[in-house]
Amino acid sequence: MAMTVFRREGSRFLPSIAARPIAAIRSPLSSDQEDGPLGVRSISTQVVRNRMKSVKNIQKITKAMKMVAASKLRAVQGRAENSRGLWHPFTALLGDNPSIDVKKSVVVTLSSDKGLCGGINSTVVKVSRALYKLNAGPEKDVKFVIVGEKAKAIMFRDSKNDISLTVTELNKNPLNYAQVSVLADDILKNVEFDALRIVYNKFHSVVAFLPTVATVLSPEIIEKESEVGGKLGELDSYEIEGGETKGEILQNLAEFQFSCVMFNAVLENACSEMGARMSAMDSSSRNAGEMLDRLTLTYNRTRQASITTELIEIISGASALEAAK
Amino acid sequence: MFRQASRLLSRSVSAAASSRSTTNRAFSTEVPSTIDSTFVESWKKVAPNMDPPQTPSSFMKPRPSTASSIPTKLTVNFVLPYASELSGKEVDMVIIPATTGQMGVLPGHVPTIAELKPGIMSVHEGTDIKKYFVSSGFAFLHANSVADIIAVEAVPLENIDASQVQKGLAEFTQKLASATTDLEKAEAQIGVEVHSAMNAALSG
User: Fold this and answer.
1) Measured between beta carbons, which residues in chain B are less than 8 angstroms from residue A89?
2) Residue B86: strand, helix, or coil
3) What are the residue boundaries of the ATP synthase F1 complex delta/epsilon subunit N-terminal domain, all occurrences included (chain B) (predicted)?
4) Does A73 map to a domain?
5) What is the pTM for the complete model shown?
6) Binary contact (A82, B84; C-beta < 8 A)
């Protein structure tokens, strides 16, 4: 019964089938059409098959990367949440002054070393650039300290002169407080600052990362502001225990604050990086899956079209023989 | 119908006004939000298309304001880089090892910023005393009877091994004797101080 259908609609069917496969594989023309044993042309599914294989491999790789990022996230997340209480006392004492007006600001940009982690590095760079515009002025000076390869690559292009220090490969060994305090010490020694603004991605949840800026003031500015009154005016009412002068204590305090805030910021940024990588790889494997579905449909269509073409040729050949008899 | 609409409108307006006033009241603690709003405004001028970044104060619970009378209990927040050991715990007294000596903190203490030296910190709650050996850090005592203690490293006293302490002390004393550069001397001195404090803590 199928054969009669084909014979009746043979003339109508043939051009439509022939047109579609050729339109679908127009670009790699030569490789599609193979010559069969009797000079019969059959359309090849090789190209589609190759594409399907590579897309399937990509899907496997991105799924594996997602699993790796998920396990790393679980490891860092606990530590980041435990370190969140670390900077609360400093903010309670010294307040949070992101809009403070100082002569020398240093923007510390935290980013990741590896890529494929979504948009977190570009948001951090955008915030850093906006902070630069906010704080640059006639007498005011803004310098960058960049942690992480990705931000370095982006900021090198246009802000090369303003970068005073770059740090990379921070996440190679598991993060701990000693390592971060050494880094903080390095920054404090090499860069002159009145206010340090640390830009990082705070880990809100696995799919949400909030760009955050934490401000740490230098001891001189703290003294000045506390004398002037206003935000830090209450600081004067605090007695100082230990140490010779108030300045010395404030110096230690500012350094300790910086290392604590950096520690929390670095951990939060690492969490955000893992979370962003997880969601980026997840959407990538989903895309690969969809592409694979579409390619499978194309593959089946091509395959069925070539079968149909073969059948038609055989049948028309047979009917021609019969008619000749 | 219009009467009901006006009633609804007045109710919504009064609700909005009261909510605005309650939020204003909620911000009247130690960290007011006025500086944040100037930051947001100046941000909008520079980068109008981008949302302003968050600041740490938005992630922190506001602190209670200073009470008029001295409260009965001291609220202690003891934080370490890897954990918040005590957070918001109400205790009677805390003894902290400041650089000027052991300092007792009771509710209603004068606001103080104290630098800590290696030593024992003990938390007294009724008859319960919990002792920690603290390496160093800072302690902030606020006017509202909240004590913030930040230490780089702290261990409960039970977890310290006496024999290791003796070994460490001997090692660092020897290093101090054989130290040549200033840096080595300083490092060895720190080691000796910490170990002798641990020794004293274990015995005393």
Assistant:
1) 77, 79, 138, 140, 148-150
2) strand
3) 74-146
4) no
5) 0.80
6) yes
pLDDT band at A32 (very low <50, low <70, confident <90, very high): low
A127 touching B (Cβ < 8 Å): yes
Q: Are B141 and B166 contained in the same domain?
A: no
Determine the residue type at A88: H
List beta partners, residue A145.
A108, A165
In chain B, pLDDT over 90 holds for what percent of residues? 3
Mutation for testing the A interface, residue in B76, B79, B112 having most A CBs under 10 Å:
B79
Total of domains in chain B: 2
Contacts of B57 in chain A (CB under 8 A): 91, 95-96
Instruction: Say if residue B148 is in the same domain as residue B108.
Output: yes
Alpha helices in chain A (DSSP H): 2-8, 10-24, 29-32, 46-82, 88-94, 120-135, 149-158, 177-190, 219-228, 246-324
Query: What ipTM was estimated for this complex?
Result: 0.76
pLDDT, tens only, A204-257:
999 999 999 998 988 888 888 777 766 666 777 787 876 667 788 888 889 999
Contacting residues of B for A86, CB less than 8 Å apart = 79-81, 84, 150
